[in-house]
Design goal:
The complex is a heterodimer of chains A (about 900) and B (about 120).
Chain A (H helix, E strand, L loop, with lengths): L5 H25 L4 H12 L2 H11 L2 H20 L1 H30 L10 E7 L3 H5 L9 H10 L3 E15 L7 E8 L3 H5 L5 E2 L13 E4 L1 H8 L9 E4 L2 E8 L11 E6 L6 H4 L7 E7 L5 H18 L8 E5 L1 H6 L3 H32 L1 H9 L4 H37 L13 H27 L3 H6 L9 H36 L10 E6 L9 H16 L4 E7 L10 E6 L13 E7 L3 H5 L3 E4 L13 E5 H7 L9 E4 L5 E9 L13 E5 L10 E7 L7 H11 L5 E6 H8 L1 H35 L1 H9 L4 H35 L10 H27 L3 H6 L2
Chain B lengths: L1 H26 L4 E2 H11 L8 H14 L2 E7 L6 E7 L1 H25 L1 H6 L1
Antiparallel strand pairs in B: 1-3, 2-3
Helix pairs in contact in B: 1-2, 1-3, 1-4
The chains are: A alpha+beta (about 900), B alpha+beta (about 120).
Chain lengths: ~900, ~120
């Protein structure tokens, strides 16, 4: 039956009943009964025509729709009758559903949706994997791949259709006619990378096999650079741009959606181009990411075992180099999202928790309201409304609240998602983050789940009582509302427990964040300005030219008024791990083949680096101007390296043999204190080589300037000095050390702040719930309290009575919440720094906060109860 | 209130099944309108089964919905005005056979429990 036939069917039933009723009446008359009597007799024989027609109509299924429309009408009317309640409930729902939808949008785009490549299910990242568990602790369980390993894997295994590699790079970009220089982030991708991913150039073409060689000089632009720097003008394809002073021909532009592996990348060159040919033959230069496409007829494990076999053979052939024994696979999504996965899961759990609290709160409000409507429900029950009808009607109300909240929430979430994406700098795949069908479906199911959760309990409880009981119940009859009060207290207990869990998580994350911020990185953090530059190898082709530039610059900076010291090095503390290299100690016995070589972070430093950064010297000396190209090679090590590898000996005068840079022995001339390469990580063994020693050092240099006043004020004068020395040299990352540290903590700070926000909102909801329940309860007990006071109870006793009533669920909730937290903190344990998951101070602070808020919420109703005038209370019955 | 609510549907179910069969059987004689069907069942059972109109019309519409009968407004020969006449369909005929045999088996089963001696004597 279609809805447009409803009216016709209605009329048909009426007509049928009427005609048969008329017939009955006629028959009665024919039997000789008077007309009036016949009418009544017919009705008697027939029954109630309205009821019959209703029952007959119920046979047809459209009755359901009709009922829903009626429920809808009634619910809308009820909601409009108490706009205050409706508004609060809708706001609560909007906030909770909005936050949850936002987080889900991000989670879906970052963790769940496959990247838009051809057959993404068959793509896998392959890393080298060391068996030594102590290496795994240093995150070498997914080690980057050496170029020679990649070439051997690709040539010698057959389980993959193809394998491609890409590596990190950075260029200073200048135009043909000396336009403004800038540092651009780049990747070098093997020629088969784009075809394998199924990515076609938006303009022009991708790389060819012959271009993927050390003297390759072609480049592809990403869409963002193409639009930003070249005005989206296709003429740029086929032209030349200058990277580090070398001309490259633009062969193509990547499509706008292609932001893999991150959106900051401006330029792609081919994998091998610009690399010294001997690096391509190395098995221990780990700087590539490898993506492979599995053949459809091969199992991943089989394909991987082939790669593993090749890798193990390479390991045996290079026993004294850091060549891993195994390989380890990773999905592309895992690879991109490794830093954000846990925070996302935690945030999603936190908003889920908040949503639960919001639903419980709305449920609580509904219970309170249904208590006020007890009589109405009783009357309707007595008039023959079925229980299902009443429940359905109440559910319709909570559904309407949820839908209104959900629609507002989804709109809010659009804004919130944008904010989140722009604030959370670590998120990969940012371009694709946005609401889609799945997100909408998720939001819809959220709305229905919330409606059920918040509506079903109150609906069932409020209709469970018989009609008579409901009509008899008066405010004096406290027993009548006992079960409902118990329900509200239970809801409240759960609500408070969930709040406690959130508060504790927020407390722990905040404390950990505070610990991170106040960590001593081991160097001066105040009044230190840093900036980076990278001298193009074409223009600065001899160590003498490089040294001349660096020394002139340092001299000029040091004589600038207000500068206390200046130093130059490859990196400053807190800026990341950077490069690390394996070394051997000349004076020690050779390392047994098969054991991993010692490994340390690689840094360069000029003579003034350590004093400018105030890194103390423990033994020996700093570098001097004599530690330069052509003189004996020297190295300075940090305390940790000395401790790990020179147990009882004096490291000074010993020699480190380092393969990559000059394959030479470096004499240890000094030991300096440890610094943190990244806040939140424990320090690593570090070797510092003289900046001036002339060994080829691709990559940038960082100038660190210790100033006597606000460091950022020096950024423009110093940049001008650099521009005077070389107008084509771009300067990047002009930051104070403090800013570098803050930036590396962005993730932790955002997570902590968001969880705190959710927790604060939940605390507010819980206290409002507590206040509501207690106010309601006090009103219910007005009569009883009046009797008590008439019998001589004092006002303090009444306050105690009511306070006890309100604080009991708070205490139960607190206990339950503390117990649940012990389990829940496992989720965030790995994100905590310098903070125990069961930190007693946090647990105590949360308990105290919650109790204080609970007492505050209870105090108003309790005070109101104590002000009851007994005579008044007894008379109002 | 609630205890009544629980029993009502059971009784209605039992009645429903039987009523459907009785209606179908009545329509075997030819098309009839609701009043006639009710009257016929009542008369045939010597007024033992009092026809509840509240069950009759829903039952008729249910049968129509299932396609066991069709309905059409036609002029009654003796009254000169239109009534809604129900007619048995082929599907309805088959259904009648099914329900009849089910009823028979049920009655026999009940009889065997209630009057075991009579069964043995036969």
């Amino acid at each position: 039956m279609r809805w447009w036939q409803i009216r016709k069917r209605d009329a048909d039933v009426e007509r049928e009943l009427q005609s048969d009723l008329d017939l009955e009446e006629e028959e009665q008359r024919e039997r000789g009964v008077s007309p009036e009597e016949a009418h009544h007799a017919a009705l008697r024989a027939f029954g109630n025509p309205t009821l019959i027609s209703e029952q007959t109509r119920a046979v047809w299924s459209w009755n359901g729709l009709e009922n829903i429309l009626r429920d809808l009408r009634i619910s809308v009317r009820t909601l409009f009758r108490s706009p205050g309640f409706s508004l609060i409930a809708i706001i609560v729902m909007a906030l909770c559903i909005g936050a949850t939808t936002s987080l889900f949008t991000v989670v879906r785009s970052v963790l769940l949706r496959p990247l838009p490549f051809r057959d993404p299910d068959r793509l896998v990242m392959i890393y080298e994997h060391f068996r030594d568990p102590s290496m795994n602790a240093q995150e070498f369980n997914y080690n980057h791949v050496a170029p020679a390993d990649y070439y051997d894997w690709r040539a010698q295994t057959h389980g993959f259709e193809d394998m491609a590699a890409f590596r990190w790079w950075q260029f200073s970009l200048t135009g043909e006619r000396g336009e403004l220089p800038e540092m651009v982030s780049a990747r070098g991708g093997s020629w088969n990378l784009f075809p394998m991913l199924g990515v076609q150039a938006a303009i022009g073409r991708t790389f060819t096999e012959s271009e993927d060689s050390p003297d390759g000089n072609t480049v592809m632009l990403t869409w963002s650079l193409f639009e930003r720097r070249f005005g989206g003008n296709p003429w740029v394809v086929g032209r030349q741009i200058h990277l580090d002073g070398k001309p490259y021909t633009v062969v193509g532009v990547l499509p706008k959606w292609f932001t893999y592996p991150d959106a900051k990348i401006q330029i792609w060159i081919s994998y091998a181009s610009g690399l010294p040919p001997d690096i391509l033959r190395h098995h221990d230069f780990h700087f590539s990411s490898v993506i492979a496409r599995l053949r459809p007829d091969v199992k991943l494990a089989n394909a991987l075992s082939q790669v593993e076999a090749v890798q193990y053979r390479l390991h045996l052939q290079n026993l004294n180099a850091p060549v891993a024994e195994d390989v380890a696979p990773k999905t592309i999504i895992e690879d991109l999202a490794q830093n954000v996965k846990r925070p996302l899961v935690i945030l999603l759990s936190a908003v889920g928790c908040m949503l639960l609290i919001g639903c419980l709160n709305v449920a609580n409000l509904l219970v309170a309201r249904s208590a006020a409507r007890q009589k109405e429900i009783g009357v309707r029950n007595a008039l023959g409304a079925r229980r299902m009808t009443l429940i359905r009607e109440q559910l319709m109300e909570s559904l309407l609240v949820s839908i209104a909240g959900g629609v507002t929430g989804v709109l809010l979430s659009l804004a919130a998602t944008n904010w989140l994406v722009s604030t959370w700098t670590d998120l990969p795949n940012v371009q694709s983050i946005g609401a889609d069908g799945i997100v909408l479906a998720f939001a819809c199911s959220l709305v229905f789940a919330s409606a059920m959760l918040s509506g079903l309990l109150p609906a069932i409880s409020s209709t469970s009582k018989g009609a008579i009981a409901a009509l008899q119940a008066s405010s004096r009859n406290v027993a009548g509302s006992q079960s409902r009060t118990a329900l509200r207290k239970t809801l409240l207990t759960v609500e408070i427990a969930a709040t406690v869990v959130l508060l504790i998580a927020a407390g722990l994350l905040l404390k950990s964040f505070w610990r991170l911020r106040t960590t001593d990185v081991g160097c001066a953090t105040d009044n230190v300005l840093t900036m980076s530059y990278s001298l193009p190898t074409k223009k600065y082709d001899t160590p003498q030219k490089v040294n001349a530039f660096n020394e002139t610059l340092l001299e000029q900076v040091r004589t600038t008024p207000g500068v206390r010291a200046a130093g130059l090095g490859s990196m400053v503390p807190g800026a990341g791990a950077g490069e690390d290299d394996a070394f051997t100690i000349l004076e020690h016995p050779p390392i047994a083949p098969g054991t991993a070589l010692p490994d340390a972070l690689y840094r360069t430093a000029d003579p003034g680096y350590f004093s400018a950064l105030q890194i103390p010297l423990l033994r020996g000396r700093f570098f001097t101007g004599a530690d330069r190209a052509g003189s004996p090679k020297t190295v300075i090590i940090n305390r940790l390296l000395a401790q790990q590898y020179f147990l009882d000996e004096n490291p000074l005068g010993k020699h480190l043999h380092v393969v990559p840079y000059g394959n030479a022995d470096h004499e240890i001339v000094g030991v300096v204190a440890d610094t943190l390469y990244q806040v939140g990580q424990s320090p690593k063994a570090t070797m510092y080589f003289p900046v001036l020693n002339g060994d080829s050092n691709p990559g940038g240099l960082t100038l660190a300037v210790l100033t006597s006043s606000e460091p950022l004020a020096f950024s423009v004068p110093i940049q001008k000095q650099i521009a005077e020395l070389d107008p084509e040299l771009p300067v990047s990352d002009v930051l104070t050390i403090r800013q570098i540290i803050e930036r590396s903590l962005g993730n932790a700070s955002l997570t902590a702040r968001l969880v705190l926000g959710f927790a604060a909102l939940s605390l507010m909801l819980a206290s409002v719930g507590l206040y509501g329940v207690l106010s309601y309860l006090t009103t219910q007990r007005t009569g009883e309290i009046g009797v008590r006071m008439a019998m001589g109870a004092r006002r303090e006793q009444v306050v105690h009575l009511v306070l006890g009533d309100g604080l009991r669920p708070a205490l139960y909730g607190l206990t339950l919440g503390l117990a649940a937290s012990i389990g829940a903190v496992r989720l965030i344990e790995s994100m905590l720094y310098g903070t125990q998951p069961l930190d007693p101070a946090i647990f105590a602070a949360v308990a105290a906060t919650l109790l204080a808020v609970a007492v505050l919420a209870c105090l108003v109703p309790a005070w109101r109860a104590s002000q009851i005038d007994p005579m008044q209370a007894l008379r109002t019955e | 209130m609630s205890s009544m609510g629980k029993q009502t549907p059971q009784r209605a179910n039992l009645l429903q099944g039987t009523l459907d069969m009785l209606i179908l059987r009545t329509l075997l004689y030819g098309p009839a309108h609701g009043h006639q069907i009710g009257k016929h069942i009542q008369r045939t059972t010597n007024d033992f089964l009092q026809m509840q109109h509240g069950s009759l019309y829903p039952a008729l519409h249910r049968l129509e919905q299932r396609g066991w009968v069709t309905a059409k407004w036609e002029v009654a020969p003796d009254r000169n005005r239109e009534f809604k006449y129900y007619r048995l369909t082929d599907k309805g005929r088959k259904q009648l056979v099914v329900e009849e045999s089910q009823w028979k088996r049920m009655a026999e089963a009940v009889a065997r429990v209630m009057w075991p001696a009579a069964e043995e004597m036969r």
